[in-house]
């Protein structure tokens, strides 16, 4: 079973992927593979942020 990636780990790896994608000499196949990984990591980050938002909304006092 794979361990769950934290937001920070996914964000750091996504930053690395973006830096590598900026290399103009990167072969196309490598670029596509990195792009796919970046999309997966971006989704993980977005899901983590949405979950954190939901948790904060749950504990926020209501305006009653």
What's the short story on this structure?
The protein is built from 2 helices and no strands. 73% of the residues lie in helices and 0% in strands. It has one domain (10-56).
What are the SSEs and their pairings?
Elements: H1 7-21, H2 28-59
Summary keywords:
single chain; 64 residues; 2 helices
Describe the structure.
This protein is mostly helical and 64 residues long. It has helices spanning 7-21, 28-59. It has one domain (10-56). It is 73% helix and 0% strand. The protein is elongated and about 55 Å long. The chain starts with 6 loop residues before the first helix and ends in a 5-residue tail after the last helix.
Give the H and E element order. Answer: HH
Helix content: over 70%
Return the average pLDDT rounded to an integer: 93
Number of strands: 0
Major sheet: size, sense and barrel closure?
Answer: none
Unreliable spans are none
Whole-number tally of structural domains: 1
Q: Kindly provide the radius of gyration, computed on alpha-carbon positions and rounded to a whole number of angstroms.
A: 16 Å
Question: What fraction of the residues are assigned to beta strands by DSSP?
Answer: under 5%
Question: What is the distance, rounded to the nearest whole angstrom, between the alpha carbons of the first and last residues?
Answer: 45 Å
Helix/strand-derived class?
A: mainly alpha
Q: Tell me the overall shape.
A: elongated
Put simply, the count of helices is: 2
